[in-house]
Structures are given as structure tokens and as C-alpha cells.
């Protein structure tokens, strides 16, 4: 047999002609998705060629050692070299380019990343890699290094990591996370040497933050003094530092025994003036509105999770209850702790630091004047001075170191009166009465104001709202809610006031409203999943929680959580032994203690 001739491709194509397909639509196509694999294989070959110095046209000289490369690859993967080689810079025609102020290992690692897309980041090389990537304008690498540092945050390095990330122009999300960590672990961070080395400007910004997690303002003062003592030249700035401490939140005893006697402060006239003003805040309440030097609101700790504590309420047989439950938002679990000494429901609850106050209430027969305090650190309840007047369904809230109780029901009448508790003296004093008698109202705090919303006077249910300026001790009206309601929950979250559930005289409600203090108007939110009268509403870092209540037929043990970003309520973990109208508060707690 003779040899078989190979077919002529052109002749074959001509013979076949155009293949008839089912459509002439040029937009009917399938995309060949092999680019990622093709690029990967191509760059593997490029890297192999680099290692063998094949077709390389440039060398990077680092610490007297050379790294061969291809200009086109460098220009495609490293912005620094793209500018160098495409903008007619002197180096564009050079065969060797010297890289200063970087070690060989760093440049080698970044060059390998440019060819392979792989980079090993470790605690030993992350800073040098980050510096090199920043120099070469490899922002993606800089960002990954910043993300790596976030996973290694510790009180001993948090300030350094924050400052380094800012220097490297890392994405704001990374620096925000370092700021959050510093705020949450402030007491530990303040003990580190890096804190003492902060500039005056950075120290003022940190100490002035609303979101520092501290047990008391005394910890802020002590940290401020440690910073001042570190360098004698800082003493001239003592007043600037002392202004960051919210002196009115310190007890009069601490002001006199620790602040006024401090060796740095007592030598500084502006500091002594600030102390006198803080003392006036305690001694002359009527002048508080004129004392403008200090912030007087407690540190907000807005991003700190909290333990939700539920007190009183009802048992399954609708009897008053004495047990107490605590909800851990990290574990999403309720657990029981030491109960109050007496059965009660419709109790007022307020939290100061890590101490929970249970005020008044109803034991199934009588309204109560009993006041108890639970210390989370010792897990003990202590009885305090009783109210001047028995009351249930009352409003209770802390502002600074003072507990305000207003309204409620004494067994005969709804009340407009207010009582103020001094935690240092353990005594109750009368406060300015509200304009309306209000029982079963919603209460919350925003800044220096206590907001009391809705409620009833035994004859009618209110939609009106009044607020107390705790500095001037004056009540004022603000816009009414969209819907009148009593026996509902109220809470402050992200600078706005939310009200949820309740009873309007004919219906048990699941509707929710939010008040914007800047716009001075109420707006509806998504309704809860269930109707809830006698519901408690609290805010934590995780969102808003509506706890227990009554739906018109049954006492509820369920809980719902609100996400304001989606405007949605979801059913959350139910209480284990409570129903009905529990009193609820939030104990601030750092994440590592949950």
C-alpha cells in the first residue's frame, strides 16, 4: 500500500461549508471558562522561567543579592513597577534596579507572590511584608496583613497594631476593629507601656471616648494619672487630660480623697478649678445646667455585649415569682441565679455598672416599697432603704449615680410622683413630679434625659411622652407616639428610642415605633411576631430584645430579637421558668467574661 496522504484542511472546510445551526442569533453562545486555570498554569511557567533565569530582562538588587524577573510580569502584578516601566522613568531601561530599605527575604516573598499568588504570612514576617507591600503599592497584600494582625490582637499590642495599620493605610474596617478591641479591653491596655507613650492628642481622643468599657470612672482617672506621671513635661497638660475624666461621675469621697489630693493636680490652678466645678455638681444640683466643662453621661459601651437579667414576673399558674434568670447572648442560653427575697411581679428594674436594682412591685396581695440590689460580682442580694411610697408598674432608670423612680400604682391611684435614690447615702429624696399620673408607662434614658412614654391613669391610656432633663430637673413634653399604649416596653438603641407592644384599651399590640430625637418624630417599624402586653424591651450589642409578656390569652415565656439593619424580628431563646410581666435589665459585660 502507498502512503496515506494527510487531508488538506482548507479543502475539507470548503467541502463542509457552513454548518447549519438552529439559530442565526449572534448572541446565542457559550463562554469558555478556562481563564483561571490557564492563568494559573501560565504563571507557574513564568515562575519556572524566572527560577531558571529564562527570558528575564531585569534584576532586583537587594542587600547585594539579585532576584531575576520579567519586566512585563512585574508591571502586570506590582503597581510600583507598572509606573516605573510605563512612565519613562530612568529605571525603565536599566537591567538592574536597586531596592533600598528592605530585606532580601521580604522582596523575595513579594516577588514570588507576584508570580504565584501565594504568600506565607507569619508573626515573624508580617510587619516587614506589610512595609514592603505598602512600598510596592500592593494594597491587597497590605489588607491581608492587616487582617492577620487583627487575629493576633492583645492588650499588650493593640495600640501598636492600630498605629501601624493607620500608617500603612489599611482599610478602615481593620482600624475600627482595633479601636473596638482597645475600648473593650481599656483597663488592660492602659496598664501597658504603649499607653504611657501615646501622644497628648491620641491620649485625649482615647480617654474622651464614650465607648470605653470600665467598671467606674475611677479607672479612667487612674489611667490618666499614670499617663501624666510617665513624663514630667506632661504636667503642663494636666487640665487637658483631666477634662477627659467625667469628674461628676466620681463619688464626692473619691473626688476629695484621691483627685483633689493628687500631687500633680493640686499644683495646677486650672485643675483645681475643674475639681471645684465637679464638687458643685454634687453639692448644688440646681446649678448643673450651668456646669458645662464635663460630659456627665456614663460611658456608653455601645459595642459591649450584656447579660439580660429577668426578675419577677409570673409562674405558670399566674402567681408572682421570686426567681431570677440571666441570658447570655454569646451562648444564647438562659440560666437561673439567686432569686429576690420576696415574690413579686410588675417590678421596676434598673442597672448601674454590674449591680441590678429591683424596685417595688406587686406580691399578689399588696403593692410594695421593697428595694433590693443584686451584685453580679458577689452573686448576693442586699436590701436597701425602702421607697417613700409603695408602687408597682413603675418606671425606673439610672442617670449617672442616681436612680430615678417615677409613676406607678399604689393600690388606689396612678402616681405622678418621683423619688431619687442616692447610692452613696442609701436614701430616697423627692424629685420633680411628672405632668401626668402614669402607671405601666415605658421608660428609657437617652443622654441626660429620662423619657417616660404612654401608660395610663386609671381612666385613659396615653400616647403622650414627657422627658426629664436630669440637670435642670425640669419636665418637658415631646411629640406623642403614633399609638396610645400602656404595659409596653421601651429602650434606647443607637441614639433612638424604641417602643414595642402593650395594650391600647381594646387590643393587645405587636406594633413597634421608633423616635428620632434629631428629627423629633415617631415612625413605625416592623411589628413583632407576637402580640405582647406587659412586655419588657432591652438593648444590647446584639440588638433589641422583647422579653415575655401577655398576648391576651396566655402569659408568654418567649423572646424576640430585632435587627434594625433588616427591620426584622426573629424568635429567640425562651425563658426557662418565667412568664408574663418580668422586669428586665442589662448587665454590661466584656466578651471575654461571657
TrEMBL record:
Q: Which residues form the BTB domain?
A: 56-123
Give GO MF terms, alphabetically.
Answer: ubiquitin-like ligase-substrate adaptor activity
> Mind naming one GO cellular-component term on file for this protein?
cytoplasm
Any one Gene Ontology BP term: proteasome-mediated ubiquitin-dependent protein catabolic process
Report the Pfam families cross-referenced here.
BACK (PF07707), BTB (PF00651), Kelch_1 (PF01344), Kelch_KLHDC2_KLHL20_DRC7 (PF24681)
> What keywords are assigned to this protein?
Kelch repeat, Repeat
Q: Could you tell me which SUPFAM superfamilies the record lists for this protein?
A: Kelch motif, POZ domain
Identify this protein by name.
Protein CBR-KEL-3
* Gene symbol of the encoding locus: kel-3
Amino acid at each position: 500500500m502507498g502512503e496515506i496522504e494527510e487531508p488538506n484542511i482548507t479543502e475539507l472546510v470548503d467541502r463542509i461549508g457552513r454548518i447549519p445551526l438552529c439559530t442565526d442569533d449572534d448572541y446565542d453562545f457559550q463562554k469558555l471558562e478556562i481563564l483561571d486555570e490557564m492563568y494559573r498554569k501560565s504563571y507557574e511557567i513564568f515562575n519556572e522561567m524566572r527560577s531558571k533565569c529564562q527570558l528575564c530582562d531585569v534584576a532586583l538588587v537587594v542587600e547585594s543579592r539579585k532576584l531575576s524577573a520579567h519586566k512585563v510580569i512585574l508591571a502586570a502584578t506590582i503597581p510600583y513597577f507598572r509606573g516605573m516601566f510605563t512612565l519613562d522613568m530612568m529605571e525603565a531601561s536599566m537591567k538592574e534596579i536597586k531596592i533600598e530599605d528592605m530585606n532580601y527575604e521580604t522582596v523575595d516573598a513579594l516577588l514570588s507572590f507576584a508570580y504565584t499568588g501565594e504568600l506565607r504570612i507569619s508573626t515573624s514576617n508580617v510587619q516587614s511584608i506589610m512595609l514592603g507591600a505598602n512600598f510596592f503599592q500592593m494594597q491587597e497584600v497590605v489588607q491581608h496583613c492587616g487582617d492577620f494582625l487583627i487575629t493576633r490582637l492583645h492588650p499588650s499590642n493593640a495600640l501598636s497594631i492600630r498605629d501601624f495599620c493607620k500608617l500603612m493605610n489599611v482599610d478602615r474596617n481593620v482600624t475600627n476593629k482595633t479601636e473596638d478591641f482597645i475600648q473593650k479591653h481599656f483597663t488592660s491596655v492602659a496598664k501597658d507601656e504603649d499607653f504611657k507613650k501615646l501622644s497628648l492628642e491620641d491620649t485625649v481622643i482615647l480617654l474622651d471616648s464614650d465607648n470605653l468599657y470600665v467598671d467606674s470612672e475611677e479607672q479612667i482617672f487612674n489611667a490618666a494619672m499614670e499617663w501624666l506621671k510617665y513624663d514630667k513635661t506632661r504636667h503642663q497638660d494636666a487640665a487637658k487630660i483631666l477634662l477627659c475624666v467625667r469628674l461628676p461621675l466620681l463619688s464626692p469621697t473619691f473626688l476629695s480623697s484621691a483627685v483633689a489630693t493628687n500631687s500633680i493636680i493640686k499644683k495646677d490652678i486650672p485643675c483645681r478649678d475643674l475639681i471645684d466645678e465637679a464638687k458643685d455638681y454634687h453639692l448644688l444640683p440646681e446649678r448643673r445646667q450651668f456646669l458645662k466643662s464635663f460630659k456627665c453621661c456614663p460611658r456608653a459601651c455601645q459595642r459591649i455585649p450584656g447579660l439580660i437579667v429577668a426578675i419577677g414576673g409570673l409562674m405558670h399558674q399566674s402567681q408572682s415569682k421570686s426567681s431570677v434568670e440571666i441570658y447570655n447572648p454569646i451562648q444564647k442560653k438562659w440560666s437561673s441565679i439567686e432569686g429576690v427575697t420576696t415574690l413579686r411581679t410588675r417590678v421596676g428594674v434598673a442597672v448601674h455598672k454590674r449591680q441590678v436594682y429591683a424596685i417595688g412591685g406587686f406580691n399578689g396581695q399588696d403593692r410594695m416599697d421593697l428595694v433590693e440590689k443584686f451584685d453580679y460580682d458577689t452573686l448576693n442580694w442586699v436590701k436597701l432603704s425602702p421607697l417613700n411610697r409603695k408602687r408597682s408598674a413603675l418606671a425606673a432608670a439610672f442617670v449617672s449615680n442616681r436612680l430615678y423612680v417615677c409613676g406607678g400604682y399604689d393600690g388606689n391611684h396612678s402616681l405622678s410622683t418621683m423619688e431619687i435614690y442616692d447610692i452613696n447615702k442609701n436614701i430616697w429624696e423627692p424629685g420633680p413630679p411628672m405632668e401626668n399620673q402614669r402607671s405601666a408607662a415605658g421608660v428609657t434614658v437617652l443622654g441626660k434625659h429620662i423619657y417616660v412614654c404612654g401608660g395610663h391613669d386609671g381612666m385613659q391610656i396615653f400616647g403622650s411622652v414627657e422627658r426629664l432633663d436630669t440637670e435642670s430637673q425640669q419636665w418637658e413634653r415631646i411629640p406623642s407616639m403614633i399609638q396610645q399604649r400602656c404595659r409596653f416596653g421601651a429602650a434606647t438603641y443607637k441614639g433612638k428610642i424604641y417602643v414595642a407592644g402593650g395594650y391600647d384599651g381594646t387590643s393587645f399590640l405587636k406594633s413597634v415605633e421608633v423616635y428620632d430625637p434629631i428629627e423629633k418624630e415617631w415612625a413605625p417599624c416592623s411589628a413583632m411576631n407576637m402580640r405582647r402586653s406587659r412586655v419588657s424591651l432591652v438593648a444590647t450589642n446584639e440588638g433589641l430584645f422583647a422579653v415575655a409578656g401577655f398576648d391576651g390569652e396566655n402569659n408568654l415565656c418567649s423572646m424576640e430579637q430585632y435587627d434594625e439593619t433588616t427591620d426584622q424580628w426573629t424568635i429567640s431563646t425562651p425563658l426557662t421558668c418565667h412568664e408574663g410581666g418580668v422586669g428586665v435589665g442589662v448587665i454590661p459585660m466584656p466578651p471575654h467574661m461571657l
